[in-house]
Amino acid sequence: MSAPTDSTDRSRPLLELRHVSTDIALRKGTVHALADINLEVQAGQVLGVVGESGSGKTMTALSVMGLLPAGGSVVGGEILFDGRDLRSLPPEEVRRIRGVEMGMVFQDPFTSLNPTMRIGAQVAEPLRVHQGVGKAAARDQAIEILRRVGMPRPDKIVDDYPHQLSGGMRQRVVIAMALVCSPRLLIADEPTTALDVTTQRQILDLIDDLRDEFGMALVLVTHDLGVIASRADRVAVMYAGRVVETAATADLFRAPRHRYTEALMQSLPEAADHDTGAKGRLYSIPGLPPDLSRPPTGCRFAPRCRFATAECRTTEVVLSTGDHQHACLHPVTVPAPAPISLRPGPAVVPTPAPALGVREPGERAPKAPAILSIRGLVKNYEAAGGALRRATGQVSAVAGVSFEVHPGETLGLVGESGCGKSTVGRLAVGLEVPTEGQIVLDGTDIATLDRRERRLMRRQVQLMFQDSYAAMNPRMRVDAILAEPLQIQHVGDASARRARVTTLLDQVGLSRRVLERYPHEFSGGQLQRLGLARSLALQPRLIVGDEPVSALDVSIQAQVLNLMRDLQHELGLAYVFISHDLSVVDYMSDRIGVMYLGKLVEVGPAHEVVRSARHPYTQALIDAVPSVDPNAVTRRTDTTIRGELPSALSPPSGCRFRTRCPLATETCATTEPPLTGDVHQVACHFPLRVESAEAARA
Amino acid sequence: MVRYLTMRLGQALIVVVLVTVITFVILHVLPGGAARATLGKDATLDQLAAFNHDMGYDQSLVRQYFLYVGRLLHGDLGYSYQLNQSVTEAIGQRLPKTMLLSLLSTLLAVVVAIPLGVIQAVRRNRWPDYTITSLSLLAYATPIFFLGLMMIILFSQVWPILPAEAPQGFTLGEVLSDPAGLILPTITLAIVTIAVYSRYVRSSMIDNLNENYVRTARSKGMPEWRVVLVHTLRNGLFPVITLLGMYLPALFSGALVVESLFNFPGMGRLFWQSALKRDFPILLGVTLIISVATVLGTLVADLLYAAVDPRVRLRGRAS
């Protein structure tokens, strides 16, 4: 939060949107993507724009940049940059402002760079075009800016192509490109959504540092309330093409006024009451956002709002005035309880809660036999490389993972991309054959079974996918999709299958009228319900969910999570819940396993793993999750991970985490730490919080 | 790289051998036979038998094949009694002319098709796009013999500015000394190719213009010409490389219809006439050359890809 350093008139905002409306013309009708948007960003300030998909947050950013997709245009209002309306300036001047005074960072670093242009040329391009800098000088400046965004060996990277870099590194390039002309305003549209949480932390810290250094204003567009809470000065909450609430960050998170903002915060898994051990249901916003080609009259949130009255549906509500503005007729008046942070509180000794809902194997005397038991699981892939695609080595995807899942229990598997969590899931359901190790289903090692027995055994374990749309045949109707598993397994006759299919729809809360529809007719949340219904068809005892809610908006995610928990209680299901999102895993799981580069580094009761992590990697993961509690200071702890995930082609010797671990010693390089402990196990030579954990147990 | 090339050439060799076997077998089991075709319908059975004996046609197919391959390895493609010259010589006379015609028309096609495709993509769903699309489809749907005839009628009869017949020179130099004669066949061949290529360029450019990296370039305030020509064009031309690779065999085989139409003494007309006359040695020789060209063409296309696309070039080196 540096003071504005340039000569800008301080009374005038650097960027101001006045009554901006944006339409997108489609073949069929027009989508009114933005309606009467008013926003202000002062020089040096960070404005967070938050909302779910379709809320118009990205369209706001693209309207400012003049980068609307085909058919899109700003149809009304003024976009004032430093007092000048971008809509009435000549195109050449707008292009110069866009290139020099504003910079934009996009969501997907994997597609944001030109694949056939060298990094250096892409970064230096604005200098060459806008400022006429010579080739050699531009290259030097590109190297310099790459160094400032934390790129290792920038003098080498300039000659590389984008595909040679990891996602985090590519995002640094995109940032360097946006900053190379020292803009006064940076617009970052979901800059870290495609990245892992530890990389996200690095990138957000970097943007913070650079903002101070360059004295820029920042518009941070994101769906993630946590990212906003820790970084923004002011927040604008958007819903269905409108700004519904805007306030200073601390005010907004302490006391949201609009009913939508309130509902959104209550939908967060972090909002579930952790301390009782029995985690309550999440609040989920019913229904779907409105169709913006025919926006409803009155408050656009009214159809989904618990507090809506007839008045809400007829009166156009405008933003109130003052510092904390909201557009709600029945605003929240009593401050909501402070959101709960994932961070361990100071001096709270973790109590291994003997509470309901948390099953701890080894503690309960007559424990049910495990439904799934995995022992020493190893999966290597042949790595193909070079023009010949010959084997160049082995990728160690899973390296000796063991765990058990008991009936009715949820085991969460968490870790960053490439840690092997999905492979474990695919191995567990039999989609892949392990290189080594045993998979014991319901007491039977599936390697000992013949084909027919194995097929019957498959019924016990089913898989639920992240992208249910991609996982369904687009030419099959819902009735066929849901009946297919029954057909393949020869369960019942046609009428019995029909009956089963309707039961399944009832169970997942979908109307029986959807039977004759096709997958493309469903929304994301409905598709996940269908996916869940299909995996339930054979009455399995265990469902492996691979990122089942990762593609969903917060409010829809809450619906699906609640459903999964309800069905678990109803049917006694066990889940292996795979996700990169620690707060979701924490909410869903009885026990959590943390994976890093093919290894299970920590496993234990969810409460303990999250609130008193013992592996430095787990702690780093927890610290990297942006908290929705604006009071939680984003500090750079000892455990902040630096660097990049090593290649699984040649994993580090000893402890695989040692190359990024702040506590690593020579022992870590030579000896691989075994997973030790009884209830809360950790694979580390120097686990955190040994004393407190032992004290608690004593 | 050396290993890759060795393997690809090995594969190519296998394909070529298979092609010779298949053509050889098919041609020799056809009714009629070479003897009747060469000696005419008045020849006696004895004469036919004597001819077959002289030519080795009375031996087993397998033996004939190996004799043929043995000669091939010495660079001897056979002898055509009907043309009264060696196959090597017959092909050697025509190949340079065919290559000249194909190269000229391909060059013309590429030079015209790329800008057309780019204009269509940039002005998508507006009048320039609609106009060029209509013309492309028209050209694509017109039979080439009809197109050629129309060209002749228009430009050498109605408006006689160009010769209707291709240059008849014996050597490449003689052909080149009559460039006007090359214009009509070249343009006729190019028109269809332009129609195909410009469609590919158009759709590939449209795909690329919707890519995120193009939006990034615009966010840097790049002028539109730079966005299209510097950022998008290179990525948008990849399909053309594939097409060029697939077109390489035509460089050798020539164009049957157009060469016949304009009476151009190239490979296409040679093949056509040999097929009518059952001139086996020529047919075998031409087929062999075309199959080699086809195999090499795909190889060249792959190598070109590597040259243009760093993602292919550096695969394996990137970690």
Automatic annotation (TrEMBL), chain A:
Domain ABC transporter: 15-265, 372-622
GO cellular component term, pick one: plasma membrane
GO biological process, one term: peptide transport
Key words of the record: ATP-binding, Cell membrane, Membrane, Nucleotide-binding, Transport
Membrane topology of this protein: Peripheral membrane protein
Domain of life of the native organism: Bacteria
CDD domains on file: ABC_NikE_OppD_transporters (cd03257)
Family annotation (InterPro entries): AAA+_ATPase, ABC_Ni/Peptide_Import, ABC_transporter-like_ATP-bd, ABC_transporter-like_CS, Oligopep_ABC_C, P-loop_NTPase
Listed Gene3D superfamilies: P-loop containing nucleotide triphosphate hydrolases
A GO term, aspect molecular function: ATP hydrolysis activity
Subcellular location(s) per record: Cell membrane
SMART domains attached to this UniProt entry: AAA (SM00382)
Similarity field: Belongs to the ABC transporter superfamily.
Protein name: ABC transporter ATP-binding protein
Organism: Solihabitans fulvus
UniProtKB/TrEMBL annotation, chain B:
UniProt xrefs under SUPFAM superfamilies: MetI-like (SSF161098)
Predominant place of localization: membrane
Residues in ABC transmembrane type-1 domain copies: 95-301
InterPro entries: BPD_transp_1_N, MetI-like, MetI-like_sf
Subcellular locations according to the entry: Cell membrane
A GO cellular component annotation in the UniProt record: plasma membrane
Superkingdom assignment: Bacteria
UniProt topology in membrane: Multi-pass membrane protein
Spans traversing the lipid bilayer: 12-30, 99-122, 134-159, 179-197, 236-262, 282-308
Keyword hit for rRNA processing: no
Keywords: Cell membrane, Membrane, Transmembrane, Transmembrane helix, Transport
A GO biological process held by the record: transmembrane transport
Pfam families, per the entry: BPD_transp_1 (PF00528), BPD_transp_1_N (PF19300)
PANTHER family cross-referenced by the UniProt entry: DIPEPTIDE TRANSPORT SYSTEM PERMEASE PROTEIN DPPB-RELATED
Similarity section: Belongs to the binding-protein-dependent transport system permease family.
Name under which the protein is recorded: ABC transporter permease
Species of origin: Solihabitans fulvus
